[in-house]
Amino acid sequence: MEYFVGVAVALAVGIFTTVAGLDRDRSLYLVILIVIASYYDLFAVIGGGASLGSETLVFAAFALAAVIGFRTNLWIVVVALVGHGLFDWYHGQLIENAGVPAWWPMWCLSYDA
Questions:
Q1: How far apart are CA 67 and CA 19, in angstroms?
Q2: Fewer CB near the terminus (10 Å): N or C of the chain?
């Protein structure tokens, strides 16, 4: 179910941003990447903060990829979004974050990819 809802929300956001004309701006998808990557920091705070340092380092890497992609080649942002989806898949094995809902990695993976 998480996969279905993630894909449905991603399609809805894509359609909405296209109809509204927001996708004409080069920064739309890198802002989406930055916001998506920041959720693990939010979950770290919800979970008591123990994993905040690790999550912030990962967030910084994705934010840096977004900025580099914006300044050089937007395909970097595409690769980073797919990379974030892969990170979602392996997140629980890489970083222990008590605040992450059980359904989140599957939802975010399907949204990212």
A1: 25
A2: N
- pLDDT tens-place string over residues 65-83: 999 999 999 999 999 999 9
The encoded tokens of residue 56 equal 């912030």
Q: Percent of the chain, pLDDT > 70?
A: 100
Residue ranges of domains in the chain: 2-112
DSSP single-letter state for residue 22: G
Of 98, 113, 109, the C-alpha closest to 48 is 98
Q: How far apart are CA 16 and CA 13, in angstroms?
A: 5
What are the tokens at 42? Answer: 């939010």
For residue 55 the two structure tokens come to: 């999550």
DSSP three-state, residue 26: coil
- Write out the E strands in the chain: none
Question: Residue 98: how many CB atoms within 10 A of its CB?
Answer: 12
